[in-house]
Specification:
Layout lengths: L2 E10 L5 E11 L2 E6 L5 H8 L7 E6 L2 E2 L5 H7 E4 L12 H11 L4 H14 L15 H13 L5 E5 L7 H16 L3 E6 L2 H7 L2 E6 L2 E7 H6 L1 H6 L6 H9 L8 H13 L1
Parallel strand pairs: 3-8, 3-9, 6-7, 7-8
Antiparallel strand pairs: 1-2, 1-4, 4-5, 9-10
Helix pairs in contact: 3-4, 3-5, 4-5
The structure holds adenosine-5'-triphosphate and magnesium ion (MG).
């Protein structure tokens, strides 16, 4: 079972200014949303998991291996990360070359890399853009290219940093399908988000970061019930929960479907 274990993690970019403090977490095969205000340390945390930054203190284990001792090649094979800004990730001048780069880099044969890249592009809804220059496409499409590049590598862990940013309803539905499929394949999916509604709808577990610390961690429904604690981190409950509360039917609703069913029941009585 894929597992990331974080023990007493501390990190700072400049000495004396801790960005992450005393983080201890176990992340296993499930879909996990990480939420927090701007500057809470979410992207920094993701970069530590991916081995791009080294802890100042504490240890991150990937299946019992200390990730700071894993080679870049091992990390690339096992842990995929989609960057917050696709322009930080994309460097090839053709979409297909960009999406094939990762698979080739971890040693897939060219024909396998091509097949995996095309499958990933199809999942991302970009199969017709394979021959285009990524920079001729929109930012939301470039985000999808960055996602396809990671999907094509078939890593055990997939980290998304703000994938919903700039995506419209159709884009979010696509993302929901991609994340659900990864979870069903038994991957560990970690997703940094600002979108409470998307988090409520898609993820089993939610972790709230506040000023470099874990403020809440648990089943998504339970975490979002903690309205007062969320307020301390300047976060709101998902819309469905807020509406249910206004209607006086309790809070335990995470998706529009759940709320609609409840309301249909109420009106048919
Ligand atoms: N390369 C860097 N050098 C110095 N400080 C940095 C660097 N990157 C981030 N920081 C600082 O670290 C803190 C956490 O940043 P981080 O990007 O991890 O936050 P975040 O939770 O991802 O925020 P956002 O929601 O805006 O993406 C911020 O105060 C930020 O200014
Ligand atoms: Mg960030």
């Amino acid at each position: 079972m894929t597992k990331i274990k974080i023990e007493n993690l501390h990190f700072s970019y400049t000495a004396g200014a801790d960005i992450l403090k005393e983080i201890s977490l176990e992340l296993t095969q499930e879909s996990i949303a990480i939420i927090g205000q701007n500057g809470a340390g979410k992207s920094t945390f993701a970069k530590l998991l991916k081995g791009l930054l080294k802890p100042a203190d504490g240890t991150i284990f990937y299946n019992k291996q200390d990730i700071s001792k894993m080679t870049a090649a091992q990390l690339a094979k096992d842990i995929g990360m989609v960057f917050q800004n696709p322009n930080d990730q994309i460097f090839k001048s053709k979409v297909i070359d960009e999406v094939m780069f990762g698979p080739l880099n971890i040693g897939q044969l060219p024909e396998d890399a091509r097949m995996n890249a095309l499958t990933a592009l199809r999942k991302a809804g970009l199969e017709h853009q394979a021959e285009q220059n990524p920079y001729d496409l929109s930012l939301s499409e470039r985000k999808m290219i960055a996602i396809a590049s990671i999907l094509a590598m078939n890593t055990e862990v997939v980290i998304f940093d703000e994938p919903t940013m700039g995506q419209d309803y159709a884009g979010k539905q696509k993302l929901k399908r991609i994340i659900t499929e990864l979870k069903d394949e038994g991957k560990l999916v970690i997703c940094i988000l600002h979108d409470m509604d998307f988090a409520a709808e898609v993820f089993e577990r939610t972790i709230i970061f506040n000023q470099g610390r874990v403020l809440l961690d648990g089943a998504t429904e339970e975490v979002f019930m903690e309205e007062e604690i969320l307020k301390m981190a300047f976060l709101e409950q998902p819309s469905v929960m807020k509406i249910a509360k206004k209607l006086g039917i309790g809070e335990g609703y995470l998706t529009e479907d759940e709320l609609t069913k409840r309301l249909r029941g109420a009106f048919s009585n």
